[in-house]
Amino acid sequence: KRDFKIAPSILSADFARLGEEVDAVLKAGADFVHFDVMDNHYVPNLTFGPMVCKALRNYGITAPIDVHLMVDPVDDLVKTFADAGATYISFHPDASRHADRTVKLIRDLGCKPGVVLNPAVTLESVKHLLDQVDMLLLMSVNPGFGGQKFIPYTLDKLKEARARLDDAGLEARLEVDGGVSTANIADVARAGADTFVAGSAIFGAQNYESVIKQMRDTLAQ
Ligand code: DX5
Ligand code: ZN
């Protein structure tokens, strides 16, 4: 059985009470804080920057913060997020002129590097990076918004990614992001994911504990 991690995306949290919300989902059993950074350039939406990550650390959040950079350019923000307490820093290679250099930069700054593939981007494009990253993040929606529908064809890419990582004996986490819920988490796990981002499915739920428990029970089957 893989070491499953649940990573609520704070994009769907109540930003007016962000510290309390993050505290609540972690107390409810979540593992990572999925931190969606959008710059209204790489994606058509604008969220929050490194100062909010720092604010969560100052508030007392000690869990891993899984920063998902939907920004272009990437490198300058890698430095500020490393200083702001990020744990994982994942970026879209198509948003960086020099993806290999960006992966090395993230690791040199003491964070865990990840690369993110949009639904239509092939695994082939990152084959030279898979042995350098701590996380491969596969988007199952087109980035920019929470609450979108899971794109079914991404399951095929997920199966291929699981095979590539296993065949190469690589330890990188395989994270799926977008439209994940209690209804499809079993299929996503069966296809090979070990880390599950969920925004609207968790923050839209009445009770964080019960929805996270339902996800874990489903994964344990
Ligand atoms: C979308 C973000 C996702 C999103 C997931 O661009 O990267 O992390 O917040 O939200 P749900 O789970 O509601 O699809
Ligand atoms: Zn994300």
TrEMBL record:
Q: How is the cofactor bound?
A: Binds 1 divalent metal cation per subunit.
Enzyme class, UniProt record, top EC level? isomerase
Q: Which cofactor does it need?
A: Zn(2+); a divalent metal cation; Fe(2+); Mn(2+)
**Catalytic activity, as annotated:** D-ribulose 5-phosphate = D-xylulose 5-phosphate
Fetch the SUPFAM superfamilies from UniProt: Ribulose-phoshate binding barrel
What pathway is this protein a component of? Carbohydrate degradation
PROSITE patterns from the UniProt entry? RIBUL_P_3_EPIMER_1, RIBUL_P_3_EPIMER_2
BP GO annotations: pentose catabolic process; pentose-phosphate shunt
Query: What keyword terms does UniProt attach to this protein?
Result: Carbohydrate metabolism, Cobalt, Isomerase, Manganese, Metal-binding, Zinc
This enzyme's EC code(s): 5.1.3.1
Superkingdom of origin organism:
Bacteria
Active-site feature positions: D36, D177
Q: What does this protein do?
A: Catalyzes the reversible epimerization of D-ribulose 5-phosphate to D-xylulose 5-phosphate.
Q: What is this protein called?
A: Ribulose-phosphate 3-epimerase
Organism whose genome encodes this protein = Saccharophagus degradans (strain 2-40 / ATCC 43961 / DSM 17024)
* Record lineage: Bacteria, Pseudomonadati, Pseudomonadota, Gammaproteobacteria, Cellvibrionales
